[in-house]
Amino acid sequence: MCMLQRGQITPFTLGIMLALAGFVILAGFAWQILNQGSLVDREACHLSVLARGTFSLSPDGPSLAPLAEVTPLKCTTDKLCITDGFFGTCNPQFNGESNTRRVTVNVRDEESAARAIERETANAMYDCWTMMGEGKIDLFAQEALGTSLVNTLFGTSFNFEVTKPRCVVCSRIALDGKTVPRTVIEEIDVNRYLAEEFVPGQTETYLQKFTDRGVNAYAGADKADLRNSAPSSTSELAIVFMQIKTPIDPVDAFTDVGAGAFVIGGGGLLTSAGRFVTRVGGLPLALVALAGTGATAGYASYTAHESQMISAGYCGEFTTEAEAKLGCSLVRPIAWSKENINALCGGGIEGNL
Amino acid sequence: MRGGMILVDNTLELFVVGIIVVMVFSGGAFAYNSWTENNEERNAQHLLDSVLAKHDALDEGQSNEFVFQGFKHGDEWYLRSWSNTDPERPEKCFFESCICVCKGNWKESGAERLGVRAESCQERGFCRPVPHSFSIVHTYPKVAHGLTKVGVTIDPADKAPEILYEFVSVPCIPLSELALGIEISRSSLGPKLSSSVFMTSYPLYCDYEERFVVGADDE
């Protein structure tokens, strides 16, 4: 019989210790993901989006759709306070709120301050769009809304049933009214920034990422529409991801009934060849809409209607086994108010506060 | 005897394996709970804390309407305040006034719901002690429940019918999956929360006392 010397360990004990160490490491990793430290927020959100998307699919085996329903979206609203000064706060917007972070801008240099605000807003939109799978993943288990309520909401006549639109509030961006002057706010033009600036680390503009490489400008028709819209003002924007499902082609559905301002916009986009794009390759793909309603206000919309911001959207087929496979997803900046949010997200809001 | 020796020799290993099994199962249960249920509860607590923080940030005599983000299953929760003199208050409030966010039992009907609210706050609620209980008023149109249609008038100009609503108030604020507007007031009379909805299509579990009182009056 082999006698162990003092201090020696058996292979079995060694195996147990290694297994324990592995378990602790895995548990630590899982803890990081589940508890969403600030840096892993976006990854945790994206992971939960993918989980839902995976459960929505059921290629051959038994349906996993019920799992999609109980899988929560681990998306926490990012609250961004734009201020000048180390101790600046966004009160009353973020009074008592957690998960806030502060971005300091130098308002003495109005142009660079405006660019910084544009950059933060554009990044918030882009992050939201990518976190949510660019709108192509079926995220919400939705019940049919019925035609009558839809017609009431959109003031038009649908002859089909759509589902209630559900939302995730990806970000709230507030301007510190005490330190960010109106002159800076009036300089902000997020649409221009989205069309001209590259996404960090990439060779495409935000607009191209939202659509395709051929799109490089907004349609003039949309700007004309905007000039007729009612102005409004806000010191806080919400970047909201919305998804709605329909049983028929959503592009036909929404454009034909004149609800384009809601989802697609009037004219579409200008390609490099100067043509409007509403469909690419025969399928409805990513679309960008200049939202033509007063509710969709940019920071400076009370002085310049052109500053009203675009919405990035996708209309087409979702990756899902659900009966309603078609629909639209949208990332939309809107003024943070009960009326605006509830008008857009009639089916409810998911994610963490 | 030989079996006993084997057991003694492997006691440590069995013990360690037992611990690992317990750790794996409890870790899995923790991860599952963290992944599902806690989201809802955390959101409810977060909303309650936000309400209190916003109230504390107000100056005396100030009042403001704040927008609170809804959350999934938010319509199963409500805000309610209890005075330290109220014998019905949840035990977790101890001897203090408190404000709670509680999961409602509105799916239960009639007498089963009577008296259940303090229990639901005790069992599935989160309470914060406050120096003075909050006055809470939630107003909604009674007609939305099909209880009473007060009247219908015709506008002679366009002949469009105008439905008149009777608004009633209840002492708790139902939360929502949508955005929620709550007016928070701070005054010498005490803290106050108020909200209102014009239309509602969901059952208001807050109002069972109101309905009960109406029923009693009818008798």
Task: Characterise this structure.
The complex is a heterodimer of chains A (353) and B (219). Chain A has 353 residues and is α/β, with parallel strands linked by helices. Chain A contains 11 helices and 11 strands. Chain A has helices spanning 11-35, 41-56, 65-70, 110-131, 147-154, 182-187, 190-196, 206-210, 220-227, 250-256, 338-344; strands spanning 78-83, 100-104, 166-175, 215-218, 236-246, 269-271, 276-277, 286-290, 310-317, 326-335, 348-350. In chain A, the strands form 2 sheets. In chain A, strands 1, 2, 3, 5, 8, 9, 10 and 11 form an 8-stranded mixed β-sheet that branches. The model of chain A is unreliable at 144-160, 219-232, 255-298 and 300-307 (pLDDT under 50). Chain B has helices at 2-9, 11-35, 37-57, 116-124, 208-218; strands spanning 63-68, 77-82, 98-103, 125-129, 135-141, 151-154, 161-164, 167-170, 173-174, 180-185, 192-196. Classes of the chains: A alpha/beta (353), B alpha+beta (219).
Short description:
The complex is a heterodimer of chains A (353) and B (219). Chain A contains eleven helices and eleven strands.
Q: Greatest chain-chain interface? A: A-B, 37 and 41 residues
Query: What value does the Rg of chain B take, in angstroms?
Result: 25 Å
Low-confidence stretches of chain A: 144-160, 219-232, 255-298, 300-307
Element order of chain A: H for helix, E for strand:
HHHEEHHEHHHEHEHEEEEEHE
SSE string of chain B, helices as H and strands as E: HHHEEEHEEEEEEEEH
- Number of beta strands of chain A: 11
Please tell me what the overall shape of chain B is: elongated
Helix fraction of chain B, binned, reads 25-40%
The rounded distance between the terminal residues' Cα atoms of chain A is 64 Å
Oligomer: heterodimer
Enumerate the spans of chain B where pLDDT stays under 50 for 5 or more consecutive residues: 106-115, 144-154, 208-219
Beta-strand residue percentage of chain A? 15-25%
First-residue to last-residue Cα separation of chain B: 80 Å
Would you count the extended β strands of chain B for me?
Answer: 11
% residues in beta strands of chain B:
25-35%
Shape of chain A: globular
Question: DSSP helix count of chain B?
Answer: 5
Q: Specify the structural class of chain B.
A: alpha+beta
Mean pLDDT of chain A: 69
Largest sheet of chain A: 8 strands, mixed
**What Rg of chain A is obtained from the alpha carbons, in whole angstroms?**
23 Å
